[in-house]
Amino acid sequence: MSYNSRANATAAALRVNAMLANKWSVLQSGKFSDVTISNGEREFKVHKAVICPQSSFFMAACDGDFQVNITEAKSGRIELASDDPDTVERMISYLYVFDYDDETYSNTTFQARKPAAITETTPNSGNSQEAKGEIGERPALFSAVRVYAIAEKYDIKGLKELAMERLSAWVETNWNHDKFPAMVREAYESTPGSDRGLRDIIERVLAKHATEVVNDVKFKDLLCEVGSLSLAILQLLAPTCRSYGWL
Questions:
Q1: In this structure, are residues 200 and 159 in contact, taking their beta carbons and an 8 Å threshold?
Q2: CA 244, chain centre distance (Å)
């Protein structure tokens, strides 16, 4: 890449970064908010112009198209009482800056702060721990499962894709994590069987490591409990078994 191309790319990245930082600042200040998202424990002063184009649910809620939520359009409040507060916060972070913090960045309870997408320098500057190779085994990534589920629930396609990317990257090196079976159970319980996003990722990695999985007690229990997972793994392994004449 030529110097001019690099300079143009850097300038473009800085402009995007400034735009995201401005949106994050408006979210944090609550200025010009025209709707409040509440889930009991927390309230978020948000903006219809930001959240509605990205979610058919929020579009309908703000338009008063849901009969059960007709008061939401009039009162300027959307109640998400049944959702996990940390996951709602991650969802809102994505709606503003197309990113959210997860356990990779923090081992403590999630708190609203500037996500990784908003940097003080240019993106991919090599300042992160991950870029320096300082991260060993990552903590369990329950946030990816929960964010995916809430994105499915409220029809936020880009957020579903980001959660899938995070889980896919995590399982490649952490599939044998002690908490992975619990993550799998939650993924299968929190999304409909017709939704293949997380299921495909989970089934492929467990099939890839089938020899280790069937000899590990934590996975044995999981496979006994989640029959659809066991069947999917068998279906993935069937072609290989046939090629060896085992079927």
A1: no
A2: 39
**Residue type at position 136:** G
Mean pLDDT of 28-40: 89
- Which has the closest alpha carbon to 185: 196, 198, 172? 198
| CA-atom Rg of the chain in angstroms | 21
**Which of the residue ranges 123-132, 201-210, 227-236 has the most confident prediction, judged by mean pLDDT?**
201-210
Q: Which helix (H) or strand (E) holds 7?
A: helix 3-29
Q: At 94, is the pLDDT very low, low, confident or very high (cuts 50, 70, 90)?
A: very high
Q: What pLDDT score does 114 carry? A: 59
Burial class (CB in 10 A: 0-12, 13-18, 19+), 172: exposed
Q: Write down the pTM of the prediction.
A: 0.79
| Angle made by CA atoms 196, 202, 204, in degrees to the nearest 5 | 95
Residues 6+ apart with CB under 8 A from 41: 85
Q: What is the pLDDT of residue 106?
A: 47
Output the six-digit token pair for 107.
């081992």
Give the separation between CA 116 and CA 99, rounded to whole angstroms: 7
